Request: fold
Amino acid sequence: MKHTPRKATLHVNQNEGLIFEKSSAGKAAWKLPPLDVPEVDAAKLLGASERNDLGNMPEVSEIEIIRHFTRLSTWNYAIDLGMYPLGSCTMKYNPRVNESVARVEGLANGHPYQPEKISQGALQILKTLSECLIDITGMDAITLQPAAGAHGEMTGLLMVRAYHHAQGRPRKKILIPDSAHGTNPATAAMVDYAVENLKSDSRGMVDIAALEAQMNEDVAALMLTNPNTLGVFEQQIHKIADILHAKGGLLYMDGANMNALVGKVRPGDFGVDVMHLNLHKTFSTPHGGGGPGSGPVAIKKKLEPFLPTPVLTAKSDGTLGFEYNRPQSVGRVRAFYGNFGMFVRALAYIQANGPDGLRQTTEDAVLNANYIRKGLEGTYDLPYSTPTMHEVVFSDKLQAKKGVRTMDIAKRLIDYGFHPYTTAFPLIVPGALMIEPTESESKEEMDLFVEAMKAIADEVQEDPQTVLDAPHSTRVSRLDETAAARKPVLRWKPVV
Amino acid sequence: MRYLPKSPADREAMLKAIGLRTVDELFAPIPAEYRLNRDLKVPRQMAESEIVDYFRQRSRENGEGYTSFLGAGAYAHYRPVIIDSLISRGEFLTAYTPYQAEISQGTLQSIFEFQTMICELTAMEVANASMYDGSTAAAEAVMMAVRLTGRRSVIVARSLHPEYREVLATYATHQGMPLSVSGFGDDGRVNLKELEKSITPETACVLIQSPNFFGTIEDVAAIAEIAHKNGAMLVVSIAEAVSLGIVEPPREADVIAMEAQSFGVPLGFGGPYCGVIATREKYVRQMPGRLVGQTVDKQGRRGFVLTLATREQHIRREKATSNICTNQALVALMVNIFMTVYGKIGLKELAKQNLAKTAYAAGEFAKQGKLLFAGAPRFNEFVVQTKEDPQAINDRLLEHKIVGGLPLKKFYPELGNAALWCCTELTTRTGIDSAVKSAAEREGSLRSAKEESVEEVAR
Amino acid sequence: MAYPTDRKYTKQHEWIQASGSTGAVGITDHAQEELGDIVFVELPKVGAELAAGKSFGTVESVKAVSDLYSPASGTVTAVNENLVTSPESVNKDAHGSWMMKITLKNPKELDALLSAADYEKYVTEEGGH
Reply:
C-alpha cells in the first residue's frame, strides 16, 4: 500500500467479545444500600406475577464494563477524531459545555410532573430557546416537542392537515421534489397524504413550470428542503411560495440544511409557512451514534391554533406554565414536553455564539463547502454547477469507468483517516458523493481531505483493486450485508 | 468565536483559492431582498463561565433539593456513575448512525448487546435499536399490529398512561384507525368482561400497560386469551422497566413497547428517554426502527451491521414501516450500560427494594387514608384517595420540600380526590414518614376519605 | 442470456408460464441481475385475487425493494415457500424459481405479453440497464 492510513489501527485489545461472553455467576458491578424498611416476600405480594429468572442477563464486574465499552468505543470513528463530512447530517463540533450544563442537578433531575412553581427554571429555558429559534427562522410560533426531524415533519404535516380542515377544504396530496430525504414521503404517508413527485430542473432546483402544472387545490403543501440536498439554494423560493399560496397550499420547509442560513436569511421571510429544525444538526447537540435528536417545528401565525399540546404560556402572575386547553390542537405528539436535555444544549450553543458567532458559523460552513468544491472540481464529476451553499454533491461518473463506485471511494477514504461522505444520496445524482464539511473544519483538515480524495482518484486510475478492497486499516473489513439480511441474527444466544 | 478553527488569514486564503473577494459573494444565490441585514435577536455571545452560571441559576429554580414521590411514566432511579463516564467518550457521543460499519463497530456491537438484553428481559425474540420514547413506541407498535392483522380498530386500556393514549390518538387520527377505550375494574386492572364485550372481528389489537398507570400488574394472560381468540394481537406497554427485575414479563404479548428511562436515564424534565419495541421473530419485517444484525467480514471475522433496512424510510420512502430515522442511540447506550451493571442478580435485587419501599409507603398511607385498587399486585406505584384535594395536600408538602403524588383529577375525574404515589430504591423511610405525616397534618384530610369510600362501596 | 420460449414476459420483468388454466409466475434473469443479491421475497396469500398489472408482492435486496406485478388476473393457488428460506435461489436460477401459481381468469390476457424474443429486444433497447 502506498498510503499510510492516518487512523491508529492497533489497540491492545481488538478482540473484545460480547459482554455475555465475559459473564459468570457471582460477579457484580452493583451494590445497593441496606434496606431501611421491612423486607417483603415478593412471592406473597406478586403471586403468579413474580419473576424468578432473568435468563441470560450478564454478571460482570465494574472494571470489565469500563474496559468493554472503552474498547468498543475505540472501534468507532467520531467528530472528535477528525472530519466527518456526512452530507445532510451536519456533523459539527459538539461543545462540551453543553454536556456539562445539561447535567446540572435541577435540570437533569427535574421531573416532568413536578409543580410548575418549582419548574420555572426549565420553563424559562424553553421560553428563551423558543424565542431564539423563532427569530432565527423568522417564524411566529414554535413547538419544541418533536423528538427528531422526522417526528417534526409529522407534527408539521398534522398542523397542515388541521389547517386545511379548519378552512373547510381538506386536501389530498403533498408535493415532494425528487431530491428529497426519504423521511418526507414516509411522513406524508403517515399523515395519510398521497405523495406526488416533483421533478428538479437542470440546475437541480424546483422546476417552476412543473410546479405550476402540478399545483392545484388538492395539494396541501410542498415539502421543500432549502438549501436542497444538492446544497443548492432555491433561488426562486418566493415564486415557489407564491405558486403554492395562490392555490391555498402551504410551504413546508425541511430545515435539515438550516446550517447554511442561520443569521443570513430567514425562512419566514421567504414565504415558508411551517418548518422543522434539527437541533442535532444545526444547533450542535450530539448525534450520539444515532440520537437523541430534537425536531422543533416553527410556524406562521395562521397555524398557531393547531400546535400540539401542551403549549408554553406566560401566566397572568408572570410565571410560566403549560396550557392544555387548545380545542383546535392536533393533539399530543409524545409524552411530556420534548427532549428537554437537547434544549439545554442548543441554548448553550446559541449563547456561546451570540448573533455574531451564529453568522460567522454559517459563513464558515458555506466557505468550507465551496473550498472543497474548488479543490475537487475536475477530479470528480460535478453534476450540477449551480452555486454551492453548505454542502457539495459530486458523482462517481469518472471513477465508474474503472468500475469504482461512490461506496468504494467512501470505504477507501476511511484508510486516509476520514469518515466517508454520504453515498448514493440524493437519488437524482447517480453515484452521489455528498460532502458537508460544516464550519468545524480548519483549513488544514480540509486540505488533508482534498489531498486524500485526489490520491484516491489517482488510485482508481492506477490500482482500482486497492480501492475496491478498502478499507484496509480497520478492525474488520467489508461486512457481508447480504448474509445478515438473508438469515438475520439480531441477538446473541448462548451456545448450547 | 471559540468553536471556529480559522484565523482571518485562513479565511482570506480560502476565499482567494475559490476566486472570491468577500464572503458575501458566497451568499449571492440568495435574492438580496431576503437576506437578513441585522443581528439575530438572541443573547449576546457569552463566556463559558457565564453559560454555566446561567444554567446553574435555572437549575436552582427547578426543584433542586426536593424529595419527590412522582412516577407516572418517569422514574427516579439511581444512575451508576460509569454511565456518564462511558457515554461521554467522544467516540460514542460524537459519532452518528453507524452507516459505515467498518468504523462503527463500537456502536453496532453495543446495540446488538442492547437488543439481546431487551429480548432477555421482555422474553421476546427480537428488539429494535430504540424508538423516541415509550409513548411513540406504543403508537408505532399499534400501527405495526394494524399492518400485521390487516384490521384497523384498536382497543386501548384506560389504565394505559393517559399521555400515551393521547399520543396514540394523534397518530391514529389520519390512519383510519378507530380507537375505543376499555375501562378498569375495582382492582384498577382491565375489566375483562368489558373487554370481552368490546372486542370485535375488526379489532387489530388490544393495547394495555403493565404495570399499568396505577402501578397495578395486569392479568396479561387473561387479556391475551381474549385478544387471541378473537384474532387480535396484544400489545403491552411497559413504562417502568425496573419492574422487569421482579415482575413476570408479558410473555403472552405479541408486541412489547417499552420506555426504558428507568434504566439509567436522567429524568431530565421529560426527555430524552428511550423507547423500544420488541416482538416475535416472525413479525420483524413489520417492526419500525433500526436493527443491528451479526455477520462476518471478508476474512470471516464476526462483525455487526445495520440490517433489514428495506423496512425503512430511506429505501421504501412512502411505503416504509415508519418515518423514523434518528432514534435515541446514546440514551439506549445509557440503558445498555445500566442493564450491564445490574445484570441478572442486581436487577432483581433492585426491583425488590422498589417493591419493599412501596409496600411500606402504601401501608403507611393505608393506616391514614384509603388505598385504591388494593386487591391487585402492584410494583412501585399506588393510588391514595383522600378527603382533602390532593392539590392542597401537595401545596402543604411543598413547604416541607416534598413533592407529593400526582393528582389524578385531570386524567381520572371518576377517582375523585386521588393521587398516584411512587417509591423507588431512592425513596427513604424518613422521606415516606414525613410525607405521610405532613399529608395527614390537617385533621381528617386522609382519614375521612376512607370512611366515605367504604360507604360508596356499600352503595 | 437466452430467455426460455415456453413462457411470456412483461415489461416489469416478470415471466408467466401457462399450463392449462394455471400459470406459474417468476422474475426474469435480467431482473435478478439488476436487483443484485436477493435477501427476501414477499409473496401473496394462497386464495388472493389478483388483477393483471397489480402488485402481488415484493422482492428485496440489501438496499432496494421492488414490487412484483402479476402478469395476469387470477386466484393464487400456490406460493413457492422455498423462496422464503432460500431467496438466493432467484439469483441462481431466476427462470427456474417460480414465485406463485395462479388460476388464469382470462387466459387471453397472455396474448398481450411479450414473447422471449420481444422481451430480449426490449431489455437490450432499454439501454442495458
